[in-house]
Amino acid sequence: MSTSLTQLRGLVHDHDLRAVVSDLDGVLRRFDPSLWGELDAVAEVPDGTVYEAVLGHPFLDEVVRGRGTHRQWREQAASALVAAGSTPEGADAVIRGWLSSPARIDREVLDELESLRGAGIPVFILTNGTDRVPEELDDLGITPFLGPGRRFLLNTADLGAAKPDREAYALAHARIEHELGEDLRAEQVAFLDDSPRHVRGAAAYGWHAVLHHTE
User: What's the CATH fold of domain 3-31+104-211?
Assistant: First the structure.
């Protein structure tokens, strides 16, 4: 087990925790890191160009706050690729390749989260996500883990604020309280994320925050 999962388990054991919150991408859901280099080759652009056009596009900040759609993001990413030297056909091929890129669930993380839930600790997923997240998680086959009506999914596109903004943690905390039907102190929640910025934001809000990393 990774040291971060061991640390999370220790927090649950040693504190009066009433909920655990995990990030999605980079923690529970993982992608092949070689994807971006392969797509650079498809577009015939310098290394790092596709990553910057897609995940580095400023419009993504709007999408994960519910102020834009995944479709609009794709269109803007394709335009950015053309501006960076790709042909329109190459840009379209890149977007299709990105959308069809396989993801996998980190079984060690899922097993630990399911174990915590089985021990009576509610487990939520907080993701800087888009309007496509429910569809993507359906494709991965983990919708049952999200509970009836996806009640354990905290998607920032629905919340209207994104990590590491303090408002995102406050809105997520309020949703957790609503789902559990009780008030919680911030220190009764543990948080797992692979982003140092997001971990710092959660800790500043008052959650017990653990930086996740793979061994």
Answer: Rossmann fold (3.40.50)
